[in-house]
């Protein structure tokens, strides 16, 4: 066949017109036809640029970035694109409901946490604190308004100054300063809260307390990177560990004491609302190198050790559990704790028995601190089931990583198979900071569907390039940020590319994601959580400075309403906080329409690979306003 071996060059194929018709072709009609086409083209151009009349197609025109956004918010590097449909056809007109701005919520909702709402929680069982778990509003109960910042709200001080101070106006609660005055948790000085670093069990400060722990386990050699602090207070333990290269997920319910998690987040310390009750914590198995409880009020000795079994699930092979406070060192403290010696002795004996049944080894009890270690594999533990008939190992077909609204199970989560007693089950992790770039054992072992070590390396390189592009397109936005949320983290490449920057990233693996990658993220020395974006997140309003939404709306298309996800993003984003959306251009046009109604400033920009890529970026900034501003407007 003619032309069959000719490479395709991307141009249109020529039409072969028979010579017979070429000879018969009259040139005069052809010239007339050409003139008419040219006139029609010129008329069309003048009509378009004149701005009059309606057309039947969408204008796809590059326009300069608005001065207010470019100058004020640092979005001046990439050209803004206008993908709005300029139609007059009735069927394409935007409805009045779609065009109007969202109203502000009443000022009483300034600290609204939809899935941990106090009033709603009272409908649920108080046994085992089940009422403090997530209980989200039904479809008809969801607020369709913008949660306001309190009057006088100010952007937090820059890191690391924020670690020791927060603005009083941002969290206007003095209750904790009164309740915990003796323990030196937090004080009010002028218009600021200051955090001296004290705690119930560390009156000499968190640093001195951590130094004591450091004499029992290695805190500075990079082998311990991820930690969880249950019942975290104002997160002074997690804040102090940051200087040692340890990233802590600080966890507390809403609210044992007023606004403790909110204080942590205002300080720029990783934290989220959570409680050990009936559901598993929203983390994968083998996530944390270290777990900590300092007088956290969790009844470890009750419910047949169910809460310690859950800690065992999320601890890495060889991970540590640290307990201070009741019942540790009860012989010294029993009078101050206002409990009997027999009661405290019985509680500690029960905890010791539970930890032995989990095959943990007690490393040391020194003063007010006790440390246990989880085995590096389960070879010996399986043998000891002849002695400890409870708890049994979970069935082989159970999912150790299933944690979204999954009930805790009274069984030991089995570690991956080990071939000898010295082998670390699941694979040994590199030390930090090498851990961030090393191929995670889950990928090396082939446990993550469709992801090889080579694909992981390519993904890491791609995200380094993308973050470099973000820094060029929105340099000022990235410079001023501390608390960052990646709403669809995939392999954690975005967060890994920010290692070394003065930020921390909460990596979310959506429950709708086709592949569960949160275990990989933790094996990189990063932290995160499972979440369903059809629901509100377990955090306070104004938690994050920067949101990164990579293909979130493609993922949730037809699952829930776009505006509900965007309203939740507005709730958890600080005034003047930024959002980087990455998605298909058609979806981003719809997102921008909703974002503009939320009083955000936004613009669409090209993909880092150029204008021919359908995937685009939407760069947005939440404008500053408070409940006071709204009251004055009204």
Instruction: Give the biggest beta sheet.
Output: 9 strands, mixed
CATH topology annotation of the domain at 199-412:
Rossmann fold
Specify the overall morphology: globular
Classified by CATH, the class of the domain at 199-412 is: Alpha Beta
Order of strands, main sheet, comes to 1-2-20-21-19-18-15-16-17
User: Rg, please?
Assistant: 29 Å
Mean pLDDT: 86
Point out poorly predicted stretches. 1-30, 41-74, 86-94
CATH architecture of the domain at 199-412: 3-Layer(aba) Sandwich
Structural class: alpha/beta
Subcellular location: Endoplasmic reticulum membrane; Membrane
Protein name: Methyltransferase
GO cellular component, one term: trans-Golgi network
GO molecular function, one term: methyltransferase activity
Write the layout of secondary structure elements.
Blueprint: H1 19-24, H2 27-50, E1 61-62, H3 67-73, E2 80-82, H4 96-99, H5 118-121, E3 165-167, H6 175-179, E4 187-189, E5 192-194, H7 206-214, E6 226-230, H8 236-241, E7 247-252, H9 260-266, E8 271-273, E9 288-294, H10 306-314, E10 315-324, H11 330-333, H12 341-357, E11 361-366, E12 369-373, H13 379-384, E13 392-393, E14 411-412, H14 441-444, H15 453-473, H16 475-479, E15 483-486, H17 493-497, E16 504-510, H18 518-523, E17 527-531, E18 544-550, H19 552-555, H20 562-572, E19 573-584, H21 585-597, E20 600-605, E21 615-622, H22 627-633
Keywords: Glycoprotein, Membrane, Methyltransferase, Signal-anchor, Transferase, Transmembrane, Transmembrane helix
Family: Belongs to the methyltransferase superfamily.
InterPro entries: Put_SAM_MeTrfase, SAM-dependent_MTases_sf
């Amino acid at each position: 066949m003619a032309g069959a071996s000719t490479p395709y060059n991307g141009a249109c194929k020529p039409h072969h017109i028979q010579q017979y018709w070429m000879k018969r072709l009259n040139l005069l009609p052809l010239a007339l036809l050409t003139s008419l086409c040219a006139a029609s083209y010129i008329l069309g151009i003048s009509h378009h640029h004149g701005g009059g009349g309606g057309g039947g197609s969408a204008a796809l025109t590059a326009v300069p970035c608005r001065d207010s956004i470019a100058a004020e918010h640092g979005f001046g590097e990439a050209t803004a694109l206008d993908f709005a449909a300029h139609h007059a056809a009735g069927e394409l007109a935007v409805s009045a409901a779609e065009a109007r701005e969202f109203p502000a919520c009443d000022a009483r909702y300034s600290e609204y946490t939809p899935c941990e709402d106090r009033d709603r929680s009272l409908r649920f069982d108080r046994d085992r604190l089940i009422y403090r778990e997530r209980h989200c509003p039904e479809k008809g109960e969801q607020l369709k308004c913008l949660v306001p910042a309190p009057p006088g709200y100010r952007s937090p001080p820059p890191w690391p100054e924020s670690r020791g101070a927060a603005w009083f106006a941002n969290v206007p609660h003095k209750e904790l300063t009164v309740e915990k005055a003796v323990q030196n948790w937090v004080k009010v000085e002028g218009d600021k809260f200051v955090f001296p670093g004290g705690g119930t069990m560390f009156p000499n400060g968190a640093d001195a307390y951590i130094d004591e722990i450091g004499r029992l386990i290695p805190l500075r050699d990079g082998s311990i990177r991820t930690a969880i602090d249950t019942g975290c207070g104002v997160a002074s333990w997690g804040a102090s560990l940051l200087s040692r290269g340890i990233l802590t997920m600080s966890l507390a319910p809403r609210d044992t004491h007023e606004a403790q998690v909110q204080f942590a987040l205002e300080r720029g310390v990783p934290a989220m609302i959570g409680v050990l009750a009936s559901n598993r914590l929203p983390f994968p198995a083998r996530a944390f190198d270290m777990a900590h409880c300092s007088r956290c009020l969790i009844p470890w000795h009750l419910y047949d050790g169910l809460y310690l079994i859950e800690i065992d699930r999320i601890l890495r092979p060889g991970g540590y559990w640290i307990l201070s406070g009741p019942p540790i060192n009860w012989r010294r403290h029993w009078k101050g704790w206002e409990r009997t010696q027999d009661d405290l002795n019985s509680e500690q004996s029960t905890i010791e028995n539970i930890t032995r049944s989990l095959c943990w080894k007690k490393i040391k009890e020194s003063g007010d601190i006790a440390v246990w270690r989880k085995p590096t594999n389960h070879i010996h533990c399986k043998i000891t089931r002849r002695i400890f008939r409870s708890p049994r190992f979970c069935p082989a077909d159970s999912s150790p990583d299933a944690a979204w609204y999954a009930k805790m199970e009274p069984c030991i989560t089995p570690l991956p198979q080990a071939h000898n007693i010295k082998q670390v089950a699941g694979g040994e992790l590199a030390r930090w900071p090498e851990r961030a770039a090393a191929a995670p054992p889950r990928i090396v072992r082939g446990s993550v569907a469709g992801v090889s070590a080579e694909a992981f390396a390519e993904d890491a390189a791609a995200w380094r390039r993308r973050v470099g592009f973000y820094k060029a397109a929105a340099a000022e936005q990235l410079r001023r940020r501390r608390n960052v949320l990646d709403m669809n983290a995939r392999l954690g490449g975005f967060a890994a590319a920010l290692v070394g920057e003065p930020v921390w990233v909460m990596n979310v693996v959506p429950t709708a994601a086709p592949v569960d990658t949160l275990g990989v993220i933790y094996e990189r020395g990063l932290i995160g959580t499972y979440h369903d974006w059809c629901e509100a997140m377990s955090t306070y309003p104004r938690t994050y400075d920067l949101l990164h939404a990579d293909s979130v709306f493609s993922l949730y298309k037809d699952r829930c309403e776009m505006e509900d996800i965007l309203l939740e993003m507005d709730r958890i984003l600080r005034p003047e906080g930024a959002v980087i959306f990455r998605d298909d251009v058609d979806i981003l046009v719809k997102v921008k329409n909703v974002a503009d109604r939320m009083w955000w400033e936004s613009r669409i920009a090209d993909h880092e690979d150029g204008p021919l890529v359908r995937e685009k970026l939407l760069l947005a900034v939440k404008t500053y306003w408070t409940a006071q501003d709204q009251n004055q407007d009204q």
